[in-house]
Amino acid sequence: MALSIGIVGLPNVGKSTLFKALTNKQVDIQNYPFTTIDPNVGVVAVPDERVDALALMSGSKKKVYTTIEFVDIAGLVKGAAEGEGLGNKFLANIREVDAIAHVVRVFDDKNITHIHNKIDPAEDIDIINTELILTDLETVIKRLEKSEKETKSENKKALSELAILKKFKETLNSNFMIYHSIIKSEEIDLAKELNLLTAKKVIYILNVSEKQLADGWQTDDNLLKAINGREYVVLSTPLELILSEATQDEKKEYLTTFNIKESGLDKLIKQSYRTLGLVTFLTTGEDETRAWTAHIGDPIPKAARAIHTDFEKLFIRAEVINWKTLLESGAWSVTRSKGLLKTVGRDHIIQEGDVVEIKI
Ligand SMILES: Nc1nc2c(ncn2[C@@H]2O[C@H](COP(=O)(O)OP(=O)(O)OP(=O)(O)O)[C@@H](O)[C@H]2O)c(=O)[nH]1
Ligand SMILES: [Mg+2]
């Protein structure tokens, strides 16, 4: 499961700077099933201190982290949805991503042109969202015309699709994003099938200056209103670029200077995981310690598909222990003799930080 996130925003807001910083964290591609990587696509490892600690405990030869793919596209401008600039073409590049990272310029810098010549993050968010809405509207109208032509009055499923499409059209026409108005599973499924951009999860990246960051910059009500309850991360892209190239010691120094616990990229990557509703479980042994991705609520046989597609069918039982308990015990064998290891069946719901051994 390669998760992907598309980076959008107005021109000159720091998207490519963010992307460059992310790709500096690029994982060794050989470990991953990609033959060619587009220059605008970067695969980054999800930082995970549990993998490091467990690998040390098990004396693993290899460590494998989960990954996220980021796609950088050119800046969108007003009218992008109608083909203004290159926007439309670029929007097509992010149709298939799992979530959108929307970069917003908060930093002021006379030397870097803002296309509307004023720094107004809330308005910028609305401009981009309107373009996404217009793109979706085009998709929905196209499908609606097709469905109306083909639907015979008796077909229940087709009629329900028609009703949903009409609702989508109305929502988009009122300049609202689909995400806030879909509840029923048929609606969610159709939005996914059509790859509607405004149905996707969003993380706003508020790109502040280093000075604003050091001064403890905060969002105001106006901006929060534009963010509309979605997740956001505050960071400074030039600083992230420096951090991504710094040694561990230098990085520590920077973080102390800015009085922050972790880099903006680490925050972003972890937040992406949460936003996408994902959990990480682990396997550990002498060969490798590895993090795997599952969806929140997955029963263990389904989660085990990440390891091998056959595992869901062949699953008999599993031994499970929380990573911290395992680490404190010092070894798998100790947890067994102490009775800390849990044997679970097919109904166990995979938990964040479970270390598992699947029996097939
Ligand atoms: N002062 C300042 N400059 C920045 C910041 N982020 C990016 N820049 C500069 O702004 C310019 C544009 O940055 P990019 O990252 O290329 O912007 P972009 O969003 O990819 O722009 P497009 O690809 O044209 O849409 C570059 O000169 C960056 O160095 C920032 O946080 N502060
Ligand atoms: Mg760019």
Key traits:
single chain; 360 residues; alpha/beta; Ubiquitin-like (UB roll); six-stranded mixed β-sheet; three-stranded mixed β-sheet; 15 helices; flat; binds guanosine-5'-triphosphate; binds magnesium ion
Could you please describe the fold and organization of this structure?
With 360 residues, the chain is of the alpha/beta class. The chain has a domain at 297-359: Ubiquitin-like (UB roll) (Roll), CATH 3.10.20.30. The protein is 41% helix and 19% strand. The chain contains 15 helices and twelve strands. The strands form three sheets. It has a six-stranded mixed beta sheet with strand order 2-4-1-5-6-7, with helices on both faces. It has a three-stranded mixed beta sheet with strand order 3-9-8, covered by helices on one side. The chain has a three-stranded antiparallel beta sheet with strand order 11-10-12. Helix 1 (15-24) packs parallel to helix 9 (237-245), helix 2 runs parallel beside helix 14 (323-329) and helix 4 packs parallel to helix 8. The longest helix has 30 residues, at 121-150. It is flat, with a radius of gyration of 23 Å. Bound molecules: guanosine-5'-triphosphate and magnesium ion. Magnesium ion is lined by residues 15-16, 74.
Care to give the gist of this entry?
The chain has 360 residues and is α/β, with parallel strands linked by helices.
